[in-house]
Amino acid sequence: MSEARPESKAIEERPDDALASNEALEVEAELALRSQRAEARTFADDVAEAQRRHVKPRATTGTGGRPSFADQFFRKGAEAREAFAYISEHTGDVVDDEADDWIQHYYISKVQGLSACFVVAVVVGVIGIVVGNFAGAATISMIISWLASFVVLAGLIVLVMISITKKRIFGRVASTLDSARDPLVFCSRYLAYLRERDPSEMVVAIWNYARGLRWQGRWDDAEALFEAYIDDYGMLADPKSQYLHHQLLAGIAFDHERCQDLLDELYYLKSIPAEALGADLVKEINLTERLAEVLCLEREGRRQEAYDLVESFFYHSENVLRMALALHLGSDSPNRTDALEWIGFVVKMGMSTWCVKRAKAIRSSGKLQKLPKGESRFGRNFRERRREARQKRRAAKEAADAEQTLENLPELPR
Q: Measured in Å, how far apart are the chain's first and last C-alpha atoms?
């Protein structure tokens, strides 16, 4: 009597089926990735949520915006600026003395001076009209026409100068973060700027200030501020607001080296219709993709590839971002000497960014001790290999030249 045949397995473990098993694992991994991405939130989910909850954007109150002439001259009602009041309420930050003196010197005094010039032009015009009134009808008509032209010209000049001053002051404030890498001073001066005038869009003020908080290392405050703005102003389905919000979250995920969180934020950013953003905002997604790729390579242990990738766009990045990228160059460098140089660069140039504290922690941990020449955790140093190759080529060339010289020597007499 024959024994009962055991039930066959779904996939027999045989060496011949190794390729089939690998393909099955790849399919399973792809399905898992799709399932994970299906669970990740998209912009369409927020739009549907806004429709379900009947969330509609709330317009700004308009208490600030363009200050009146009296506000500019006497600095009245500065605390009524909407963006200033909102940020100060949700973060607890206030304008310090240094920022107040700075905004007074570079903005308020200039606006007051230009406004005073306009007042002087108007007073001169009125005085001229009064004097011309006593000089006769023919004289007064000539004086009025001349003074009217003078006042109009003076007014146009003052308006142009005030407009230029407003643009320059914002550039000066922004440079403290993007160029000077000093988010602490940036937030203080930007808050002083918002106390004097509101930007054209509320989301711009929230985005700028949240960036300053992020680079200070106040990640929770940055997230809370932007999330409060999204809720309070009903921007759940607004493309620009949600784009800037999730760009902030993507940056915070990169700061904490959370690869999966960054991939989720990138997935959300790509779900926003490109036509609703504009070309400038869409370009930023390319940088976010590179940052995500860096974290993925590091998670897989491919440090050399991560180092080469960061180095490829390091010098094309804004100065403040270079501090965070330098930390990755220091951690991924195949040469401990270079790693110490990168970490030292962050300590020296990082100013008030959170990167300085992390760089000091890395340096004090002893993980970046200098190894013998040409050695590293990741194999032979590629710079040493290049140097050895150059030395070999130089020695071969010298040997060839010496051989050619011997061949060309005249035959010595015997």
A: 105
- Diameter of the chain by CA atoms? 140
**3-class secondary structure per residue, the chain:** CCCCCCCCCCCCCCHHHHHHHHHHHHHHHHHHHHHHHHHCCCHHHHHHHHHHHCCCCCCCCCCCCCCCHHHHHHCCCHHHCHHHHHHHHHHCCCCCHHHHHHHHHHHHHHHHHHHHHHHHHHHHHHHHHHHHHCCCHHHHHHHHHHHHHHHHHHHHHHHHHHHHHHHHHHHHHHHHHHCCCCHHHHHHHHHHHHHHCCCCCHHHHHHHHHHHHHHHCCHHHHHHHHHHHHHHCCCCCCHHHHHHHHHHHHHHHHHCCCHHHHHHHHHHHHHCCHHHCCHHHHHHHHHHHHHHHHHHHHHCCCHHHHHHHHHHHHHHCCHHHHHHHHHHHHHHCCCHHHHHHHHHHHHHHCCCCHHHHHHHHHHHCCCCCCCCCCCCCCCCCHHHHHHHHHHHHHHHHHHHHHHHHHHHCCCCCC
Measured CA to CA, the distance from residue 61 to residue 240 in angstroms comes to 20
Q: Which residue has the tokens 């989301």?
A: 203
Q: For 343-381, what is each residue's pLDDT tens digit?
A: 999 999 999 999 999 999 988 887 664 544 544 444 445
Contact 210, 175 (CB under 8 A): no
Record the tokens describing residue 108, joined without a space.
Answer: 């308020």
Residue 56, pLDDT score: 86
**How far, in Å, CA of 88 to CA of 75, rounded?**
18
Residues in the chain: 414
pTM of the model: 0.72
Hey, what are 105's tokens? 């010197």
106 and 169 Cβ atoms separated by less than 8 Å = yes
Q: Mean pLDDT in the chain?
A: 78
Among residues 60, 74, 91, which one has the least CA distance to residue 188?
91
Residue 1 amino acid letter: M
